[in-house]
Amino acid sequence: MWTAGIAWDGSGYEVACIATDGTTAPTARFRADDVPGLVRHLGAVCGAQVLGVVDSTNGLLDGPLRGAGLRVLRADPWDLPARPVAGSVPALTLARRGQAQDPRLVETDTASGTLKGRDADLARAQQLSAPVADALAREGLFLERGPAGLRQVALTFDDGPSAPYTDRVLDVLREYAVPATFFCVGLHAQAAPAVLTRIADEGHCIGNHTWSHPFLPDLTRDEVLFQVDATTRAIAAVTGEAPTLVRPPYGSQTPDALECLAERGLTTVLWDRDTTDWAQPSADTITANALDGIVNGSVVLMHDGGGDRSQTVAALPVIIEALLAADYRLVTVDRMTAG
Ligand code: NI
Question: How many angstroms separate the CA atoms of 264 and 315, rounded?
């Protein structure tokens, strides 16, 4: 039995594998868009029986790794040594936790995602942030839903750009000639510039979704700033434009983090319709979740990255046709906030 620790940094992933008897394989590096290569590496080094361990500051890998048949455990920050601002703890540190069968590791699953067991933390952080969020909303710097007086809806896609799903989403949007908003993670934006360019070239809006998709309440102020600034740089390097919108991973927030984002001139965008496509339900469920309760100004949360999104792609034409039939205009979030 082998354990693979997977670390992230400013340029991609590092993998360290360790066997039950302590044998270690040389560490290997992968670009963020080469999770298939990473999985092949694990198969070659570790065989079929391998446990993946990720630092909780990475919310991107568990979906694709579980999709490839791995068990994925999360190590939480209070159980780990200090990490650099621009990365997780080293891959070997994570691998050794798995090898030692550290009981504090949390096994992730598709139904709960990376945040398994932390729903109460999320709710508490949101409650604590509500006064700051309300104040920012009055300044137009925080939004869950657009103006009620306009018959418009914004479709949003998180966690890409990611092959092959981002291109498939873009194909559907082009077919219906409707725009959407893509909240991109920095690791993916840096690794897939051609897809990012296509999003921009086809008239969609690109927002900032942090570098490695962490739970913001776990981060220091410097880490929040790295997550946001590095992602803005990566997007601007490709498209020539810095994003004006940001979506905190999981909708996670703290009063400080919200103020950091606002100081960067970024409008924080949440959503009011969660399709729950991240949990990979059927296309019918995704469609129903998008449309049930939709109102003027609704912001619909979907995903083009972070796992198998074929059901999201299948649901998208049905969702768009229903919205157009109900006379909703589809707009990007930046247009929605502009009125
Ligand atoms: Ni996300």
Answer: 35
